[in-house]
Amino acid sequence: MPTMFVPSITNFCVYDRSTSTRTTLKTNTIGYDCFCSEVRKRRGSARFTLRAQLAPGAGGSTPASGRNQPSSAGASRNWDERVELATPFGVAVRELLSLPARVATVAEQCRTEGGIPQAQSRFEKLREAIANGNMRSRLTAMQEAHFYPRSLVVPVLLQVLRSAVEHARERNRLEGTGPSAADSSRPKNLSTLVLPDRVFDEMSRSQAAFSLAILLGQGQATSEAAVEEWRQMAVEALIEVLQEDLDPAARAASAGALGHVGSRCEQFKPMLVSPLLGCFEKQSEDWIVRLSAAASLGLVRAREALLLFIEELNSHEVNSESGKSLLVQTVICALGDLAYADYSQSEMDQELLQRSVRAIERFTRSEDVLVRISVTESLGHWCRHSSKARAAVESLLLDPNENVAKTARFALDTYAKQDQ
């Protein structure tokens, strides 16, 4: 049976940012909040960061990798390394020092030891926390579970992600208002994992979507059929949630997750572009979902969205209300991303390029500074195609807002370097 990778005694490295010093605490308690309280007692109001480190030989436990851990708190540790971490609001890139203690320990070991130990007993505790814990403990447990082998974590993430969709399907089946809940396309081995009567909150479903997106975007050392099966299954689950989940936050998260996947895995792009286009094109859809779909279409450089984006911008007033202003800003940025798609010299393509520039240029008159900054960045991307875009960016050098003018200067400098 594999040993626990967290020993009974844990060294906590305390890094005081004000003095750039490190000290070490040793205790048999692994509660992060307890350590925070203890350090506050010892160090007063000094700014500090806590991070778990494995104590060599503590409690007779060693990491399953078999490597000896350094005895000093800072030796052979690179806590400045960054990892991708799923949150309910997107994919964040964080330093190890900024993560919760257990999450940081697992993430650091995964990065330095070439894979974490097969600590099945610990994962069962995480599974229990995800299934029955409160929302805060569930989100933290999902972040830690993310670094475990995919064969363990993917089914759990799918269970959380698809819970609302499965529940709605089962309810419709029982009420006779929808298709049968028997889904022949769903692998049999998942049938016992998804419980239709258990619906996880939208924050957990959103984080599960982004966690799956990170896993899908990571390189694969093998192309075995089993690996490809779960990857296909995860993309299909994200599309299902985008199209069927009743909560707009979960749908928006799935749209964002699909964009992350498409930007990392070219093979999935044909699968996800059409659902994202359908979501953005649906005017009755919640604006936050359309916003997320637009950002993802720009991220994957889906040229199919070009005309939709032009029409969307032309349908808005230059000075829109708050929610619409955010949507406009996102579409402007996404349209800027599409400047790097492939275009021919045909008359049709050249006309589309000019229409894109005109649609963006309208918003140089916006009273919203953030919109004007987005316009400046977007037009900077289109400089490679249009002299009119370059002229518009040059005019923004005189914008009364300093940040807009700086963005214009940066855009022109970037274009000049690319044009060399």
TrEMBL record:
Transmembrane segments: none annotated. GO terms for molecular function: oxidoreductase activity. Residues 53-79 are annotated as: Disordered. It comes from the Eukaryota. This is Uncharacterized protein.
